[in-house]
């Protein structure tokens, strides 16, 4: 792949704004497991090898088992996720694939399981990782 633009060098203010959003997500009440499941699943959908590599390693550091990491892409057929985790994964998929919109069923299920603040944090975490995925893929960041 030919070299591509390095956003932090060319548009540091914009890059720092994205970093600020990530810093906010880090300070939320979201559990580390919920954060990493969001990051892994969105990155899988978007095909961002750089982010999948980073967030599966982070997930291991937070104690997420290999089995749960491997099954994230097929979570509907796995009995290793809680009801809350399944709601987060479903919402992550629909926000990531936003062209199909977020169904009332998926949204309401999450809204019944989480208070408004936690739900807002979930949504913002999904939006943030999608931004990082798009930045990494577009600028050619590679998993190593």
UniProtKB/TrEMBL annotation:
InterPro entries: AhpD-like, AhpD_core, CMD-like. SUPFAM superfamilies: AhpD-like. GO terms for molecular function: peroxiredoxin activity. Residues 12-93 form the Carboxymuconolactone decarboxylase-like domain. Keywords: Oxidoreductase, Peroxidase. PANTHER family: 4-CARBOXYMUCONOLACTONE DECARBOXYLASE FAMILY PROTEIN (AFU_ORTHOLOGUE AFUA_6G11590), CYTOPLASMIC PROTEIN. This is AhpD family alkylhydroperoxidase.
